[in-house]
Design a protein that fits this description.
Helix content: 10-25%
Oligomer: single chain
Shape: globular
Distance between the termini: 56 Å
Number of strands: 13
Largest sheet: 4 strands, antiparallel
């Protein structure tokens, strides 16, 4: 076959347009079918047609299971980690509508490990002399930005590692700022929740996460961003609210369309 011969998708059978082919190990994949794969999947070129079919079957099942996913806690700004505490499941998505784009539901039993990491980035600040030349201050001055990451090792045939940037676009510039302390607290609580899910025998061991300290802090702190206090969550559940789709809900997310409570 020539380079410009017509190609057809080995999954759906449709003709693949110019520059639309996604090469597989033993076949071709159209961009529409490729768009249905897990966003965490990185092995497409090394995958066979049979393996892609199996993953798409899993993705269809995942889409149906999203109806039963009811998050209690949300961590992050642009990319968010949603936790269903009762079911001990999580999903990760950049959309405020957590059911949009069919994000993968991850069970607690699939989490092999989780690690938190705070990265310090610094950029030197220069002065301009009378001739318009940039020069360093004495001593040098720096502008800082702090990134909060969590990395999960996952037992899945489709992906093995997920790294989440929890505060992209909302970087604190000082370790002593309220924003830094709030984001550090959120990161610690997220890791603590996941450790308790994976290792229930460690309940009460606060070396893995400052549970009591965090709970006391949250009782007195003003919630920031998408991370509501547990007291406000309880009040929201008791009062109930009506979504724009018309559904009356007792949780912070609509059970029908998945939109967040206004």
């Amino acid at each position: 076959m020539g380079l410009f011969d017509r190609k057809f998708c080995d999954i759906c059978g449709s003709r693949i347009g110019f520059l639309g082919n996604r090469k597989l190990e033993d076949g071709n994949l159209c961009k529409e079918c490729a768009g249905k794969l897990s966003p965490f999947f990185r092995g497409r070129r090394r995958s066979t047609v049979g393996e892609i079919r199996a993953q798409l079957t899993y993705r269809e099942e995942n889409s149906r299971k999203l109806a039963d996913f009811h998050p209690d806690l949300v961590f992050g700004t642009d990319e968010k980690v949603y936790l269903d505490l009762k079911a001990k499941k999580l999903l990760i998505t950049g959309s405020d509508d957590f059911r949009k784009n069919n994000p993968d539901i991850i069970d607690a039993a699939q989490i092999i490990s989780c690690e938190k990491h705070i990265e310090e980035n610094r950029e030197e600040i220069f002065m301009t002399d009378k001739d318009g030349n940039e020069k360093s201050y004495t001593p040098p001055r720096y502008q800082y930005a702090y990134e909060f990451h969590i990395t999960l090792q996952i037992d899945s045939p489709w992906f093995q590692e997920i790294s989440v940037d929890l505060n992209n676009g909302n970087r604190p510039d000082r370790k002593d700022s309220d924003l830094y302390l709030e984001q550090e607290m959120q990161l610690s609580e997220l890791v603590s929740c996941l450790h308790r899910w994976r290792y229930p025998e460690l309940q009460g061991n606060h070396q893995l996460g400052p549970d009591v300290y965090i709970m006391n802090m949250r009782k007195n702190a003003v919630p920031m961003g998408v991370f509501p206090s547990m007291e406000k969550e309880a009040a929201a559940s008791a009062e109930g609210w009506k979504c724009i789709c018309g559904t009356v809900n007792s949780r912070n997310f609509c059970t029908e369309c998945g939109k967040a409570r206004p």
